[in-house]
């Protein structure tokens, strides 16, 4: 195994056991795609094993090159700061290793196709027929204080809106950014469309996805004349796995280039001018590996981590 690049899949982590199970299913799929490579996975926060544990296991089994791929959709605080901090610290302790860090999934044709399928599945499950020109599409992103990452959700929405022929498209966020889900859906309900389709642009289930669906139900109850439809998230669709495979292979081909043109840590972005050159450090040490709700046997309240310098860009 040592002469073949090993793979480390870096997940966000969640307090929700279902989200951890779905991430582990992703890792299983990638192991099947790379049967000749040593593959480990780990989490940035809450769930175990933590990323460092996975990296140590690869070294113990003789890895000389490790390809670290973020299991995340967009490049916000996690991909720009927390994960590089973890990987850089590990690499500094193992100068004999070739450790590479991949880019996020980003906006990809295949992920848009998965969204299309999830939306079509939700439409097919509806009892009545509503023309798409009478339908509003609501794409829900995680939300972060990185305006570049937030804007990517708008691009996803726009491409689905135009490509699938919806009458209108809107974006809202599960946290940090505005509008939040209740405000976004309440505003959408005033626009006069017969049907509103909500699709969480998330990789895995978790506390936030369940909350999005619950909030959709709450707004639906207040607007009985509108049909509210809940579409599925990305999950372990084969095209999602294909996208991960590409990100891993990019690290070997040298095409692993993150788009930094609008990165607030490199450029003077409106409203975030003071963050240019901010140190690349992690902010999850206090929740690293502390376990899920299932481990503790009770339900945690969502603390939101508002005290972090860099807010989250991915799901929990």
TrEMBL record:
SUPFAM superfamilies: Chelatase. Pfam families: CbiX. Residues 292-316 are annotated as: Disordered. InterPro entries: CbiX-like (IPR002762), Sirohydro_Cobaltochel/CbiX (IPR050963). One of its GO terms (molecular function) is lyase activity. Keywords: Lyase, Metal-binding. Gene3D superfamilies: 3.40.50.1400. Residues 297-316 have a biased composition (Basic residues). This is Sirohydrochlorin cobaltochelatase. The lineage of its organism: Bacteria, Pseudomonadati, Pseudomonadota, Alphaproteobacteria, Rhodospirillales.
């Amino acid at each position: 195994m040592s002469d073949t690049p090993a793979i480390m899949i870096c997940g966000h982590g969640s307090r929700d056991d279902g989200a951890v199970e779905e991430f582990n299913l992703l890792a299983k799929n990638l192991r099947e795609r790379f049967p000749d490579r040593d593959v480990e996975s780990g989490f940035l926060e809450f769930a175990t094993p933590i990323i460092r544990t996975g990296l140590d296991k690869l070294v113990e089994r003789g890895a000389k090159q490790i390809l670290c791929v973020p299991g995340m959709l967009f490049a916000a605080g996690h991909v720009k700061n927390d994960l590089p901090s973890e990987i850089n610290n590990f690499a500094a302790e193992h100068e004999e290793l070739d450790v590479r860090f991949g880019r996020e999934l980003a906006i990809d044709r295949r992920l848009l196709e998965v969204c299309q399928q999830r939306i079509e599945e939700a439409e097919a499950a509806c009892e009545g027929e509503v023309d798409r020109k009478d339908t509003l599409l609501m794409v829900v992103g995680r939300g972060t204080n990185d305006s570049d990452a937030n804007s990517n959700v708008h691009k996803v929405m726009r491409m689905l809106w135009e490509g699938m022929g919806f009458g209108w498209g809107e974006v809202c966020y599960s946290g940090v950014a505005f509008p939040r889900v209740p405000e976004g859906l309440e505003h959408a309900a005033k626009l006069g469309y017969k049907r509103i389709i909500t699709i969480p642009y998330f990789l895995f289930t978790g506390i936030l996805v369940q909350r999005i669906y619950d909030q959709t139900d709450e707004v639906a109850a207040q607007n009985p004349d509108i049909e509210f439809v809940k579409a599925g998230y990305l999950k372990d669709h084969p095209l999602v796995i294909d996208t991960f495979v590409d990100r891993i292979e990019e690290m070997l081909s040298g095409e692993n280039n993150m788009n930094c043109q609008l990165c607030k840590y490199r450029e003077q972005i409106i409203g975030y001018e003071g963050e240019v050159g901010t140190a690349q450090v992690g902010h999850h040490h206090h929740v690293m590996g502390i376990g899920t709700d299932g481990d503790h046997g009770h339900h945690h309240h969502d603390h939101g981590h508002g005290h972090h310098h860099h807010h989250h860009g991915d799901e929990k």
